[in-house]
Every structure is written in structure tokens, then in C-alpha cells.
């Protein structure tokens, strides 16, 4: 490939937003991105700082060219540790792209990099460094990122929440990050070959994160479309993106995605392995799977879903389920085990898998291949038997200095959600939980972002570290651009509601700023502070389109006469004017006499 | 008015659905409507019976003509009690329609009825009958309605849930209904002048209900539009509808709504009272309010929101709130109290209000005028002070044989939701709680059906009896038809998720039927069993439009090769073929030896 037309993706800042960069202290060259939302001058408030996972795409100062990829800020960090080496890498084979014919082949990414791997005997994982007492640049980066405006508001913070055993600190220090990573309670998915990454952390003592899934379909998707899906998902707030591609061109498209991704990219390697054996499950082998892990590790995939907890002995437990096995990876492995009547090669070779993960710092996301696929199957013997196996595997991964998180359900009615969280914490040694939903009822296909958003908010509150989104198309079809956005916003709501309920020290800042804007009729500020300013503005403008209405002291719902907020302002003024009003309130709170006691008697009349 | 062109509203059954009617035992002429969803013959399952609040509009056998109104099935029930009398009624005045000019007047409903009221000294409320040991037709009607298919599945029911102190019975008898109404733990909103009503019950030992708000705007709405809004909302599952109209033609439009409503209609009478004094809050008087109550009682309004808990002494508690008073009724009353520096006339005259309510059986919905309007104000002194006053008023209403429910917040972060429910149960003697959301974060205008759907599901689980919906337009604009539907479906999800979590005996039937359909690739059944079959079908058809795909053993998400459900079927067959598989599973569960123990050693290699 010599040249490409410039391929465009969505760029530009969100409304009223500018990119701000914070330097490191240990690593002063570091520039940690934040988004600052400016408010109307009448607010007399500083900008509101929010977490920003959108990468350079929302930075008007950044030059975006997807055929070049993003700048590789971590290259120097990795190199300076002197424990890695560049090497030739595994040659790309026809099987890697699903045996696609040459004219159907997605163009090779035009700016290739030689892969890096750990030098013989070295562990290049964040957990290995953390255990050795080293605070890496990645750790300082995430510490700064997590704090948002916390330092500035430190004094006036009143912590208020229920953490269910989590220990969210008032202020995140790099040392706190190191400690959480060292004890396996948090992960920083950051493959040494993903230099374009802006590091982030997943753990229950940090902000709750969300993942969005993308992936080409068997039919068609160009690399530009897939990159745009990723850019679109992170624009609205996806903290990580999983590439669940199946079919052809998987290898080449993945390269385009990773080279342009400022967020961690996750995959399910068994999907590609299955393509390599033309979809014949029985033909899968450890060798093909191993080769796929190396292929993807060299590309820079940050986390792998590995369904190593589906054991031969678990399969009979699923036979009487209402919906059997609903995880694709889980069903593939179950079929393989059953056909060969052997134990899963993922389980048997798990220590070798760990060695690969350690050589590139690929984080494990231990898959819940037996997650329930309906309300009836929730919290059953199959699910919990697998979870216990995942607990064993966690210990093995930790022994090998690998980072681990654990995937969770699925479909769970509300009263069974907490049991999932408690059991996961107990059997998996507090490794971060990463759940899909859960959906709290089965009866609303078309609205499963909502059925699952309810469960996601709750399990996030109880301790889940990352929530995998569900779109309105779940169970029905392939999500389009609007579905991806709806899924991401719904899950940002769930994650934020969980942060609020946990009493995360900085979470409420944005709610309060938006509520003040609402009370003061600063419509533009309301839109700009919301998770989706475009939708908020367009909904408002459907009824009151004129610019003048953006400063109106009422809205279309009640009109000026019935506006409670407007009346509330009158009340506030009147109340303040009336001498002693506040004093009265105090007396009331203290249990003193009320005013006009004579009128109280009228109640009985 | 002599004649009208026929005004059309949405009619016709939902897909694969027929209306079934169950007779009463005590009252054998009674026909209680249910919806039966037919399944594909290959399912070999009986139809799934679901609760049906859509009224005659979904009955192909019913003739709908909104200028005539629905048939008046309760007329005979009320008459047979011989404790009511017909009378002339209050003449309609120009103020009732907001002083609209004659050419702007909405046509008078063409088939008027003389109002009924209690005979001197009689209490014609369901609670009065219940306390007297009388099982009314209304009580038997709701008992049959609540049971759904419970009797048929009685034996195989395995109760599974957490009720937080509620006592949902295995089977609802008319006597159980009577008892719950007698002790005030449930209400049957059923004005004696709303003969068109199909009675329903609100209480935490019954299915969780939802309310949808409609209402004309100051700008324009015809009576046909308003009736259609109501019909549309109940088609998708609204159990009650509140008419929150302001502006002109309130009286005439309300008459059209009530005459065509098979569900209870609620109002906030202070809105109309304020129109009668041209929006000047200070000019409100008890006399004008009282007159409005009688006007609406004669029309057949089933429940009134009365903000009688906003007391003068509470107002100072709101002064330092982030968003002050956000209830319209609450802010109106607060302004009135403050201006006159007198106690609320609603509070002072509450016993007279009870007398009116008792004469027509209008249920109270005691308004939470001081509900929090943002996360920062949740569970504050103002909110809880008002709640205590509502508890006092509940006792007064009960003393007068009036039915009561209590309105609740609002905006509440997840960790403060349960406190609301517990406090309400404690101070209001278990009178049914009726909550708006609550919204679990403030940062997502445009998605407040979701921010509040999360809170609604939770508080419904904890014990709220009815959930007031929130649409995507909340805080931004007037909901349109799509917004109403989205709001209703979201709240049906929340209510159903709550029923499941409470372990309601019949709730899971529909989930299980849909999940079986999903596992067996009965796509049509999946669509038809869902809350919104049209959306489910259209989402599916966006990717796989052909009819042949409706029987395909895969879907567009994974394609045939990766379909976990398909693989699961293979597994199931293979597992069953392998002798002793189920036996093996049993041994595993019993803690016996597993198979292929030799391979287990491989893990450590």
C-alpha cells in the first residue's frame, strides 16, 4: 500500500468544551487530558472538569489522519524501562484474515511498527511493576485522570454514600494506584504494543467505567467504518472498546483500530481462532489458539476475554437451563469439550497463556462462558461453578504477574444481583468485576439498554468496576450509530449513578452544576453539562426553538405562570425579605415553637 | 352541540393478542378483561395471559365512538348500593374553561350524564365498604384481574424474591382485596361518577402500577388529541392517567377524557383553581378551590393530588436548597402561604376536603410539594418534614373513610432511595406510595426516562405501589406521541422488574415464555411476547428483513456459525446422547468424583 485518500472520522470538541492537559509530578512531561465545560458568565463559576476518554479526536489542536494512527506517547515510557525488545514478529497469514480473497482484502495499515515483547525472563506488566514498588507513568497518568477537580474542591467535599466495602479515597495518589494494582484490585490494561493508549484504570475504588462493543459483520465493514465506530463510542464516553469482529479481514481491521485507539482495546481471541478453522469448532486446537494470542498481542490488544472457566464437568449443569449457554465463547468451548470429551485446552494451558500475557502485558478478562441468558437461569449451579473456577484461575494469573478482571452476567433479576457481586468478591479475591448489564427482565427486547441499565447501575454501586454496555438492538440485530450512542449514554448514566451512590468525592460536582444551571434558567449550561448536549438542546428546541427562549425564565412544560422554579425564586426573595425567616427555620429544626400556632388548631375543625 | 364527525383514536389488538374475559363468582355478570398472547403451534404451550389496561380500544368487538363515550359498566354497581342520588350538579361557568372566548371553546361532550353523590350521611368509598365487610364488584374485579394465569400455574410456582416486608399472596381473593383496602394498604380509585372505569388496585401487595401524565398545553390541543393521548398511553400499559392540563378548556377537555377512559383519571385541582384566578397565586381562596373539587368530582375524576403537606413552617427549610421547590402545586401553595403569612388553606380545610372526597369516592394522592428537584436536595429536612405532615393527613383521611396514597420523590441518588420508602411506610401507616421516578442523577436531560427508570425499579421493589412515568422530554419540553410510548414502556420495565424481584408469583411467566421462544428461535413469539412488539420486530427486520429469517435458527448479531443458542442445542443433544451425562452432573453436585481426573493435573503444568 502506498497511499490512501484521507479517511475521515468524527472530530471536534463537544459544545462549550475545551481540552485541558494536566502535567505529572513524577513524570512532568506527561499531559493528562481532561474536558473543561465552560459556563455562562452569569454563573460566576469556574468551568466544570469532566473525565475525558475521547482522545485527540475532540482536540482541535490535534491532526487526525487514521492512515498514520495516533501519536505513540507510551513508546518512550515502555522503552525507558529497558525490559522489552523489538523483534520481527509473526508473519501475517491468509488465515488471519479469514482466507479472504486478495480483492476482498482490507488494506494493510500503512504505517507498521515492529512489535515489542518482554526480554527473556522479564515480566512487563503493570502488576509486576506495582509489586516491585515502581510507580509507572501509566500509574501517575491514571491517578491524575481519576481526580478530576477533586483537589480544588477538597475542602468543601462532604462524603455521602454507601460503598459496600469499597474504599474510594478522598484523593487518588500515584501510590494508591500502585497499591491497588499490586494487590490485584485494579487493572491498567495497557499492552506494551499499544503505544497510542491514554492509560485508564478499572477497579472498584475508582470511577466506574463502561465498555462498548464494536465489530465488523460477516457482510461488510470497511476499516474506516470500524475506526469511526470506535471514535464515535469514545466520543460519548466509552472507556474501553471491544472489537468482537468475526468473519473476514479481522487482522487488518484490528490493526487500523488499535493504531487509532486512545482507549484499551479488548478482544475474544477464540472468535478469530474459530475463523482460522473455518468455523468448525471440533477442529480448534491449542496451537491455533496460542498463535492467535501472539498475533493479537503483537498488534497491541490490551485485554483478552478467555473462557477458561468452562469445564467439561460444568456442561451437564446447563442441560436443563431455559436458554442453555448464551455466551458465544462459552458455547464454543463447551461444544469442543463435549465433542472431544476432554478438558478445555484453555484451562489446561492456562499457565502458558499467562506467559504470553506477561510478555506483552495483556490483561485477562476471564470470560463467563456460562452466564445466565434469562431470568430463569440466573445464579444457578452452572454459573456459580464457573465463577469458582475463575477464582482459581485468578490466583494462577496473579502468580504469573498478570492482570486479571472477571466477567459477569448477563440476565439477573434485581434481588439476585448483590449475590453475584458478593460471591465474585469472595471467590475472586477482589479482582475487578466486569459485567454485562445485567438485564433485570427478559420481556423488553428493543429496550434492553434500559432493562440492563437498571441492573448495571445497581451492580456498579455494589462494586462492579466496569459495565459492558447493551444497546437497544440486543437480541434483535446489529447496532447502528444511534444505537451505539444510546447504549453508551445509558451506561454512562448507570456508571455515574453508581459513583454517586458510592459517594465518589467528585461525582456530584457535575450534578450540582447542572442543577444550579436549571434553577437559574441557564439553558445553555444545562445542555452543555449534560451527557448528550445535542439531544438535550434538540428536545428543548422542538417546543421552544427561538434563541430568546434560551434565556427564558420558564420552559414549555409549565409555561411562565406555572413554573415552580420561577415561583421558587420569588419565594426565596420573599422569604429572605421577611425578617427572621431563616432563624425560624432553625428554631423549627431545633424543635422549638412554630409560628402561627393558632392556625394549627384549625386542622381539627 | 348536535352532531360531530366521528373522531378517531388508535384501536385494534396488539399482535397475536385476543381479549379474553373472565366472569366473577360473586358477581357472575362481570367480565374482567385479560390479554392472551397466542404462541406458535410448535411451542405446544397455551397462550400467555397478561394484564390488560388498554380498555375496549384493543377489542375488535367493541364499537368505539368518542362522542358517545365508553359503556358505563359501573352504573349498575353504584346504583345497586342505594346510597347515592342523582342531582342537578354545579352549572359550568366561564372560569371552568379558563375564560376562553366562545369561538375558542372546545365542544361540550355531547352525551352528558347527571352526576351522582352520596346520600346525606353516607360514605360511598371503597374503604368504607371494605371496613363494613362488604366485597364490592370493584373488589372482585381487581382480584380476578391481579391473578392473571396464577391459578393455572399454582402448583408449579416456586416463589423466589425479596419482598421487604410486603405480603404478596400466592392467590388474590376478593376477601384479600377487601382486607387490604380496609386497612388502607391499597386503594381502588373509582369515583362513583366514572362509570366507564375498569377498576384497578394500587398497593404494595399487588402488581406494581404505572401512571402516565397527559395534558393540553397553553397553545393548543383538541379534545380528540387529548383522548388519543390517553388511549395511546393505556395501549402500552399505563394503569392510570393524570390530566395535568393548564390553560383553557380544561373543563370541557376533561369531560371528553373521563367519558372515554377505562382507567382511573387523576388531576391536580390547584392547577384549575389557579386558572380561575387568572394565574394570580395570591388570589386563590378556599372557596374557589372547594368549588373546583366539586366540579371535578362531578365529572368523575378518580384521584386528586392535594398538596396539603406544604406548611408555612416548612418553607424556610427550602430556602437554601439548590433547586428550591420544584413541585408546581407545592410552589403555588408555598407562595400563597408566604404572601398571606397564613397556614395553607388545604391544610386548614383538610377535613372539609375529606367530606367531598367521601361523597364521590375520590382517592387522595397527597402531593409531595417539597420533593427534591435535584440530587443535592434529596432526603433533606424540608422533604421529610412534609412527609410527616402527610402521615398526619393520612390518619385524618382514614378517619373520614377516604382512600389515600402518598406521592414521593423526585431526584434521589440510589443510596438514599430505600430511606424514602422505609420512612414513608413508617410515618404514613403503609398507605400506598406513588413516586415520580426517582431520578438517580441530574446529568442526563434527554434521557431522564432512564435516569428515573433505574430509581423507579428500585423503589418499586422496595415497596412503591405505583410509579409515575418520566419521559425523555422531562426538563426540556412537551412529550410527543413517541415520548409517551417510550416513557410508558420504560416504566412497564421498571414495574415488572420490581414484580420479579419481589417474587410476584405470576410475573415470571412472561419472561420464561419469551426466553423459551428465544432459545427455540420462535422469532414471532419473541416479538409478540415483548412489551413493544412493533419495535422489536422492526429492529429485527432492519438487519434480516426476509420472512424466511423469522424462522432462522440464528440472528444477525452472530450469524449461524457463532450462534451460541444453536451450539447450545447441539450441546444439549450431544449431552443427552452421552450416557450418564445427567447422572454425572448429579454426582458433581453431590460432591462426588469428576470425570477425567487425570487431566485436572495438567492445569499445574
Automatic annotation (TrEMBL), chains A, B:
Signal sequence span is none
Give the residues the record marks as binding substrate: 213, 242, 271, 307, 327-329, 368-371, 407, 434
Quote the cofactor binding remark: Binds 1 [4Fe-4S] cluster per subunit. The cluster is coordinated with 3 cysteines and an exchangeable S-adenosyl-L-methionine.
> In what pathway does it function?
Cofactor biosynthesis; thiamine diphosphate biosynthesis
* Reaction(s) this enzyme catalyzes, per UniProt: 5-amino-1-(5-phospho-beta-D-ribosyl)imidazole + S-adenosyl-L-methionine = 4-amino-2-methyl-5-(phosphooxymethyl)pyrimidine + CO + 5'-deoxyadenosine + formate + L-methionine + 3 H(+)
- The answer to whether keyword Lipid metabolism applies is no
The segment(s) forming the ThiC-associated domain are 13-85
| Pfam families per UniProt | ThiC-associated, ThiC_Rad_SAM
Q: Name one GO molecular function term.
A: phosphomethylpyrimidine synthase activity
In the Enzyme Commission scheme, what number(s) does this protein have? 4.1.99.17
| Positions of Zn(2+) binding | 411, 475
Q: Which domain of life is it from?
A: Bacteria
Going by the UniProt record, its keywords in alphabetical order are: 4Fe-4S, Iron, Iron-sulfur, Lyase, Metal-binding, S-adenosyl-L-methionine, Thiamine biosynthesis, Zinc
List ligand-binding residues for [4Fe-4S] cluster. 555, 558, 563
**Needed cofactors:** [4Fe-4S] cluster
Instruction: Note the HAMAP family from the entry.
Output: ThiC
**What job does this protein perform?**
Catalyzes the synthesis of the hydroxymethylpyrimidine phosphate (HMP-P) moiety of thiamine from aminoimidazole ribotide (AIR) in a radical S-adenosyl-L-methionine (SAM)-dependent reaction.
UniProt protein name: Phosphomethylpyrimidine synthase
- The gene it comes from is thiC
